[in-house]
Write a structure and sequence with these properties.
about 0% strand, 7 helices, mainly alpha
């Protein structure tokens, strides 16, 4: 019979393979001129560094997501891509933790913590799925009242996803647990929380840019002869 640590290592390898293959879209920008590639890359780097708590992770995720068909050249596209990556990471983490809950040999306290985390990550996936759908219909052509309503929905649901992720981690706060199970789960949930936090920051940035443009446009209309 495989030892618990061996099983966790196997699950970890499967998890990271799945994350690398599905969490982001493969980048293939060879058909774009280098200057266009550089412009997009510089845009991603500048906005990640200006807005997020984990800029290196943000740059890595979005640079990989960027593709020839949908270059990330606007703040809305950055927010959409970041949320899509966050949802994908959450799904991968939820799958991993669900498998970890079925490992034999878990202590009762470990099993309860992992089982609760499974439920919290399922709720995370649900919230982020709603966010991705909402942002897809969140058009800059809406009036400011409609825009604010969509913004409130998105920010509330992303905030709820972060709360579920933190609740999962709280379940492993007992010093009695420890060991490889806690480490394996924490790595995945913390990664997911960092990606989700970055996504929320880029949503805030998109909303702020939209409001600035709307305000400037309104002032120009009022002041025009």
């Amino acid at each position: 019979m495989l030892k618990l640590s061996s099983i966790l290592i196997l699950l970890s390898l499967l998890y990271f393979h799945h994350t690398l293959s599905t969490a982001t879209k493969p980048s293939s920008n060879s058909s774009h001129p280098n200057t266009a590639n550089d412009d997009v890359t510089n845009f991603i780097k500048a906005e990640c560094r200006a807005a997020t708590l984990y800029p290196s992770l943000c740059i890595q995720c979005l640079s990989t997501y960027n593709s020839t068909t949908t270059p990330l050249s606007s703040h809305k596209q950055l927010a959409q891509a970041a949320l899509s990556v966050s949802l994908s990471r959450a799904r991968s983490a939820a799958t991993f933790i669900s498998k970890a809950a079925r490992i034999r040999g878990l202590k009762p306290i470990e099993y309860r913590a992992v089982k609760d985390c499974v439920e919290n990550m399922a709720s995370t996936v649900d919230q982020l799925s709603r966010v991705v759908k909402e942002l897809g219909g969140w058009s800059g052509t809406h009036n400011q009242v409609d825009f604010n309503w969509h913004e409130s929905n998105v920010e509330s649901w992303v905030g709820a996803a972060l709360t579920f992720q933190n609740t999962c981690l709280d379940g492993f706060s007992s010093t009695v647990i420890g060991g490889s199970v806690e480490v394996a789960v924490r790595v995945r949930v913390i990664d997911c929380a960092q990606v989700t936090g970055n996504a929320l920051a880029l949503v805030h940035l998109y909303a702020a840019k939209h409001k600035l443009v709307s305000t400037t446009s309104s002032e120009s209309t009022v002041n025009s002869p």
